[in-house]
Structure formats: C-alpha cells, structure tokens
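Please, does this match?
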Amino acid sequence: MKGLAAVVGALLALFMLPMVAIGAITDAAALETPADGACADPTMVMSGTWRPPLMSAYVVTSEFGMRYHPVLHTTKLHTGTDLVARADRTVVSAADGKVVTSSFNIAYGNQVILDNGGGIQTRYAHMASPSTVKVGQELGAGTPLGTQGATGYVTGAHLHFEVIKDGEPIDPKPFMATQGAPLNGSATGGTRAAGAPAAAVAAVATSPVGATSPVTATRADGQKITLNDEQLSVAAAIVRVASETGAGDQGAVIALMTALQESGLRNVNYGDRDSMGAFQQRGGWGTSEQRRNPEYAAKAFFGGPKGPNHGRPAGLLDKAGWKTMGLGEAAQAVQISAFPAAYDKWEPVARAILTHRGGAGASGCGASGSGFGDLNVATWNLCLEFCGDGKLRPWPQRVPLIAAAIKTAHPDVISLQETGKEKSQGAAIMTALAPDYKLAAYHRSKMVLFDPRKLSTEDAAGENLESATFTIEGKGGVAQALRDRRTGQIVVVSSLHPVDGDEDAQRLRYVSQAHDIVKAIVKKEPGSTIVHAGDLNSFIPGSSNKTAVAKFVVDQGFRTSEQIAETSTGQEYRSYNGGKPPRRGPRIDHVLVDPHAVTVKRWQQILSATRTDPESDHNMVMATLTLLNPPVATQGAV
C-alpha cells in the first residue's frame, strides 16, 4: 500500500487499510451472478449460430479495457479478450462470415478478420502460423482458422479475440453473451439457430435461471425457501413482463410476492373455486387456458394500457398510487385476498429472484447497470448502528433486503454509513454482498464497497492505490482510490458522515478536514477525480441553519450530482424519511462532484421498497457519472 500520512488536529488520525477479501454469500437473498459477469446488449443480437472461438475449454486471461501493455509498456486500450485453450488449441470462427483479412500484422501476428454482417466483424489474432483461409471465402460457424500461438506483440501463447462494431472495437463478453455463447470458459456456448427470435436469445444469454442454478432465500418469518426449475420458469416470465409493461423492478417484486403466496410460484390448474394459474386468477381474468399461461397471467396481473383486460378487472398499473403503497398492500389491491397480510413475508424471496436475474429488463444487468465509460456511484445510510430502539425492524432482518436492493440498483461503487460494528452488522453486510462487491475501506461504520468486475484497488501495474481512514469531531470516515478496469481512469470515493444537530461549525470542520485528506490522495494518484458521497446532515442546495457545509462545497467548486444531472428521478422526496412514508422536502444524502472533471448523466433517489417498514430510515441515492480525462479545467480548489 502506498503510504499516506496526514494529521489534522488532535481529533484526526489516518490509518492504512488493506483491501479485505469477502467470504461466502449468506443464503438470504444473495445469489450467484452469471458466470461471464458481463452485461448483455440486447440491441446487438445477430442472426445465425454463434459459438466460442476455441475448440476446447479455455481460460480468460485478459479482459477488454484499458491496461498496461506488457510489451509496449504503456497504458492503452486492450481491444479484445485474451483466451488460453486448456487442451485443443484450434481456433475456429465464432459465427458465419466472410474473410476480409488473412495476413500477418506486426502487432496482431497471424490474424484473420471475418465480416459477420450487420456491421459486426470478428478478429482472431496471434495464431501460430498463417491461416489457410483466403480473403473473400465464406465460412460457417466453427470453421478452423488456425492454432493458438504467440506471434505479434505477446508474452505468451493465447488467442486475442476481438469484436468490431461499425469499425470500433467493443467488449466481446457482453456481445457474446447476447448471442447465446458467453465467454465463460466453455467451448460450447448456448448457440442458437438462424432466425431465432431476439427476445428468446436475450433470455438464454442473460437469465441464469435454469436446471443448474436453484435459488435459495429466507422469508421474512425465517423460513428457508428453495425454488426449482418450474418455479424459476414462472418467475422468468413475470420479470420479463414487468419490464415490457413498464412496471419495472418494483412491480416485479410485487408480482413475485403475489405468485409466491397464491400458488407457490407454480402454474397450477386448480385452486379455490375456479381460481388457477400462478396468480390464482378467477374466471373474470381470462379463459382457463389463458390463466394457465404464465405470460398472459402476468400481463393480466400488471394490467395497464398493455394489459389484456383494459382495467376490468384492474391490474397493478391500473391502481392509482401503487408505487407509493407498501409492497404487500399493492399486491392486496390487485388480489383482494382474505389474507391481506400474507404477501409481505415473501419480499426477501422475491428480491432474491430479481437479484438472481439481474433486475428487470432484457439486459440482465439491472436497470441501472453502467455502460462502458460510465460509473454508477451510490450512497446509503443504513441505520444499522443506531436503529435498535424499535424505529426499524431488527437489523438481521433488514440486511438481506439491503443487499438485494443494492444488487438490484447495481452501483459500481457504494458509500455506506451507519453500517454498525465491523464484526457483526458490517460483517453481515459484506457477506451478503459478496462476491458481487468487495470492501475497499471500513472505519467506524463507514464503508466503501466496489464491484470487482469493473473496478480495482490496484493500478495497472498491480500496485495498491491510496486508501485512508480518519476520525474527525468524533465521527469516522473513509476514502479509497479506485481504477476503472474498462477505461483506466482513477476516482477517489469517500464515505462521509459529519455530526447531526445544530453544530454547523463542527460539520464544517469535519467536511473540510476530510476534503483535505482526499486531496492528499489525489496528489499521490495523478489524474484522479474526487467524488464525495455520504450523509452530510446538510441540505445542499437549500436553506436552514445547516449552511456552512453547503457554502464550503460550493466554494470548492463542487456541486451535488442532482444539480447538474441530465435526468433526475425521485427529487420530490427527502433522502431521509425517518422510517415513515417518504416525505417531501430537502435531502441530506449527496454524491458531490466537480463539474470540471465529471459529467452527470443521471441522478436518482431509490425509495425504500416498503414504505411503512423500510430497509433503512434513508433512501439510497445514486448518480451515473462520466469521468472527463483530462478534465476540462482544473478541479476547483482541489
């Protein structure tokens, strides 16, 4: 770890914190992610059959993105994905295509480039000897092109596999996942026949639901539930329809809770009187055949303008104010059950299913998964530390819901406050989020966690980036420099939480001294960008007696991300809701950025799913950022 020493007054202490490896996932609402760890792009589904470009099983040794080149000794974009065969080293065409290049290149060595149609080309580089295929030749998927080798700028034998869209290299992993041939080490991906519907391919490529991936979660009443293939198949239809109808993740959770209670998430042909299907819908909802079709039943449940019943009976989207209802309350509004309180116990299981599927939508990455070059930064005060007085449900019950909400929101890095003691509440959070998130820094209930698939605490040469923990005015804080694996850019993210109450001078001392600490990290990580995140106990913008922090932030050239975001959602609510239904008014949880170094694509406040019994007494806030490298001007006063 690079050294960082700074002392700010008698109340400030810095400690170096190594990155902590996280343990196994708990059973409750924390589940396996897809093996390729990539977000599929449903807009790029191609026709024809696709397969991995090696004949045998393989390992991925280098991903697409900015990296330190082992031969040229400079940081540059790695335009493909490197694969090393485990046995048979034969390189084959990943899809049908026409040979446009079959030659030697000083950097790529012996290479073949195929035109696969639709603006897509694929490159196969560093092969051991020149390929026998000729320019203009039409090849089918799986045609041998050569043998894995070490020609060109390489340090060892491997295949450099590249996907080029409209002349620009793109990340092969999400692209291949969308084609049903994920680069997960298998030589036989989930290929599809020519002409297969795109929606079907997206489902194959992005949904981990299947015979090899059961879901186990724990209900709110403590009962452990394991879902089988039949149940997961019904769940897949519900989540897909939630996305298509615009009900989103919140609607999907409500529908899953309903089906879990009504039928055990099974497509049954019996029930009370004439009820049947996953939602136990009666005759007025459709014919018996329709109600036993999970997709139709889901469309009927959601209703709205795309629903089959045109509001009679009314579906979820036909219910005014359903988004502000409790989840079980919304389910009851549709079902009108004799047991209205029965739905809520299924919330953790429903969230586990949604987390397992990556959230609603065809991409399988959650509605908020960041794209190449963007960075999702979130902050959330969890109230695990100070909410033991009955204000919220006991923290062990909330941890699975908190983890599920974070995974559904899909931030790349998240700043957490009031996470509690490191060996109890904090440890439970880290365990529930592993392996999707790793801990970068922890101190006095403040955490920074990151997605290791997108970010790293090491620079391109493998050296640890700067990290700091501190105590100011009796309140802890942390800061961590993180490298975006895709672009090579470095961002320093803090987790801040100054004192509450009317002591504006104390808040100012905390924030200003913490800012000095982060500036010290930036000086040791040239080109890095500061993002402050946390519960600042200050309204920015706004007016109250808590003005010192707001003025300090503005004077440093920083802005809250919501002030400069291109789009915003949830601004009508406070980020702090006190455990009650979200109240309108100022917000105290912020993601602060320097507009000279960062553009903000989106600001969103993610409201607690259960209004009357939330996961925390705060709502999560997340911003989608694009880091400017170099910045358009000096970073304010930093």
In short: Confidence is low (pLDDT under 50) at residues 1-43, 190-212, 358-368, 630-638.
